[in-house]
Write a structure and sequence with these properties.
Chain A: This is Ni/Fe hydrogenase subunit alpha. Chain A: It holds the Pfam family NiFeSe_Hases. Chain A: Mg(2+) binds at residues 48, 373, 424. The complex is a heterodimer of chains A (433) and B (154). With 433 residues, chain A is of the alpha+beta class. Helix content of chain A is 45%, strand content 19%. Chain A has 2 domains: 5-42 and 400-432, no CATH class; 44-380, Orthogonal Bundle (Cytochrome-c3 Hydrogenase, chain B), CATH 1.10.645. Chain A has helices at residues 44-51, 59-64, 71-86, 92-122, 128-134, 136-157, 177-203, 244-247, 272-279, 285-294, 306-325, 376-395, 401-414; strands at residues 5-12, 22-29, 32-40, 166-167, 170-171, 216-219, 230-233, 238-239, 248-253, 256-263, 343-351, 354-362, 368-374, 427-432. Chain B is 31% helix and 22% strand. In chain B, helix 1 links the parallel strand 1 (4-10) and strand 2. In chain B, 42% of the residues are buried. The chains are: A alpha+beta (433), B alpha/beta (154).
Chain lengths: 433, 154
């Protein structure tokens, strides 16, 4: 009998959220996975300390710096928490425009991920540049959709990267009617493109890899939850953001500076597929119809359906932005006055990558005493490890090294973690005995 | 529809403002941004650079450049210098080279593309650019203004 020893080490040298490093260590011996560790270094932990002592007026702009791709999520979540603590009720205009602003971020982030990061895998391409050679129209369409999302963000935030639009109590600025009219025309024109994107995404063959996991997302009585709602799980939990700590726990692993999150001591899924699993009944009718045409059955237990889920959420975001911008009027004031008070408050929204939870303790002057931020990537970290283990077993550990590496990269990219950019650099060292 | 675009790329980090300074210097020479000519500063645009070049017949791109040469040294690049780039792309690392390579594959490059790199030194966030960079940006702006003048855009 031949004894086979096989060690696979995958190194991800670049960043998680702002900058940093991540690595995947995979060791296979005698046909079994003996080590599988996803290591992430997570700068937002430093941001939590940076926030201490700063005024509530600075917080939305500071937390926007945590992520260049989903700054609106951080701004909106921080503002929501502080507004709750200060007893601020947004005016209807600001409430609606927060959602529109957030839709812009979903559109750009999802389109970026689909076309620049995830899709090349499914066509045997190393990059979007290679993909552009075989699917140029689809890539062009993706870039147009991404640019539209950026434009929507710029409208409310002055710029799409680290926007500065949100303030506690509303917005700093209200776009002019002419600007809204112009963007509505563009949003309307993008609807058929987004519908075509869904059809394209759903037509891409994906591995059959059903797994058991708990989906966690926000849920709202009437909306497809983005910027408000309860936290719900696929096994029946339904809680306010304040109760997050009671049901979800974070812990350190010695090999990672990022925290791992668990629900009932188990990994769980956040992000587009979890949202779609829990909220597909809240989609607009047109989106529901299109989703039904794709044949995708929900809830899905196959993470490779995440690409289609993102495409569906792009169309949803376009519909929502159009709906909320209909009959737009420039408000008398884009914000309401705020009087700070001491206390503790939490906020929770759906970042493009999943549930984002903030907790702030504030003093009477409105300065941060301490802060906690639980981002989606750290919540998904345990699930990614679990998925990799199950998915590799499903694929077969006797597959060639390149196939194993590509599969690991694809699995990781399904989650759109902030380390996804680096997974193209995965290096694998194989030892055979 | 604008047909000529001057795009200065940078960030607020020391010498990385080279592209922005070139745009500032160009505008101070009364080369006005207008209907046929757009002069714009971009902050690390990533893939968004591609739509900025759409429908333009001539694009002049200025960016900071890490090199072994002197700080402030200006270099002009041809397409043969970057056509083969296709690795290492990410949402965070999708730079000018990647955007140009993608635009090339998509057939989105303008008829004429002038890419200038200005050799830089320190790129500390929040710091002012060095004197060498400021001088180089002004010199490059003069060169671009002359080019534009020859095409009657100045």
């Amino acid at each position: 009998m031949t004894e086979q020893k096989r060690t696979v080490s995958i190194h991800v040298p670049v960043l998680t959220r702002v900058e940093g490093e991540g690595a995947l260590d995979l060791r296979i011996e005698n046909g079994e996975i003996v080590e599988l560790r996803l290591r992430i270094f997570e700068p937002p932990r430093f941001f939590e300390k940076f926030l201490e002592g700063h005024s509530y007026t600075e917080i939305p702009d500071m937390v926007a710096r945590i992520c260049g791709i989903c700054p609106v999520a951080y701004q909106a979540t921080a503002a929501q928490a502080l507004e709750k603590l200060f007893g601020v009720e947004l005016n209807p205009w600001a409430q609606a425009m927060r959602r529109v602003f957030y839709c812009g971020e979903w559109i750009q982030s999802h389109s970026l991920h689909i076309h620049l990061l995830a899709a090349p895998d499914f066509f045997g391409c190393n990059s979007v540049i290679e993909l552009a050679r075989i699917a140029p129209d689809e890539v062009r369409r993706g870039l147009r959709i991404q640019a539209l999302g950026n434009e929507l963000m710029e409208l409310f935030g002055a710029r799409s990267v680290h926007p500065v639009g949100i303030r506690v109590g509303g917005f700093h600025h209200a776009p002019a009617l002419s600007q809204i009219s112009a963007i509505r025309d563009k949003l309307r024109a993008a609807l058929p493109e987004a519908e075509a994107l869904i059809r394209w995404a759903a037509s891409i063959p994906v591995p059959q890899d059903n797994q058991a996991f708990v989906s966690v997302a926000m849920h709202h009585a009437s909306d497809y939850a983005i910027e408000r709602g309860q936290i719900v799980t696929s096994d029946g939990l339904n809680i306010e953001a304040d109760a997050f700590d009671t049901h979800f726990a974070e812990h350190h692993e010695p090999f990672s500076t990022a925290l791992f999150s668990t629900y009932q001591q188990q990994p769980y899924l956040v992000g587009p597929l979890a949202r779609l699993n829990l909220n597909h009944d809240r989609l607009p009718e047109r989106v529901k119809t299109l989703l039904a045409e794709t044949g995708l059955t929900l809830p899905s237990r196959n993470l490779f359906h995440s690409l289609t889920a993102r495409a569906v959420e792009i169309l949803l975001a376009l519909h929502e932005a159009l709906r909320l911008l209909e009959g737009y009027r420039v408000p008398d004031t884009p914000w309401v006055p705020v009087t700070p008070r001491a206390g503790v408050a939490t906020g929770c929204t759906e970042a493009p990558r999943g549930l984002l939870w903030h907790r702030y303790e504030m003093d009477a002057d409105g300065c941060v005493v301490n802060a906690r931020i639980v981002p989606p990537t750290s919540q998904n970290q345990g699930r990614i490890e679990e998925d990799l283990r199950l998915s590799l077993l499903n694929l077969g550990l006797d597959q060639p090294d390149d196939a194993l590496r590509l599969h690991c990269e694809q699995v990781i990219r399904n989650y759109d973690p902030c380390i996804s950019c680096a997974t193209h650099f995965l290096r694998m060292k194989v030892e055979r005995g | 529809m604008s047909t000529v675009r001057v795009l200065g790329i940078g960030s607020p980090s020391g010498d990385d403002q080279a592209g922005w300074l070139t745009v500032d210097a160009l505008l101070s020479k009364c080369v006005l941004s207008g209907h046929e000519l757009v002069i714009e500063k971009l902050d690390r645009p990533g893939a968004s650079l591609i739509p900025k070049m759409e429908n333009a017949s001539w694009v002049i791109l200025v960016d900071a450049m890490q090199s072994t040469g002197q700080v402030g040294q200006v270099q002009r690049f041809d397409q043969t210098d970057w056509a083969g780039y296709c690795q290492g792309l990410s949402s965070h690392g999708f730079g000018v080279l990647a955007a140009l390579s993608l635009a090339h594959e998509l057939g989105c490059l303008p008829h004429r593309l002038d890419v200038y790199g200005i050799g830089i030194g320190q790129v500390t966030p929040g710091e002012a650019p060095s004197e060498s960079i400021q001088v180089a940006a002004k010199q490059l702006a003069m060169r671009i203004a002359t080019d534009l003048n020859n095409k009657q855009f100045a």
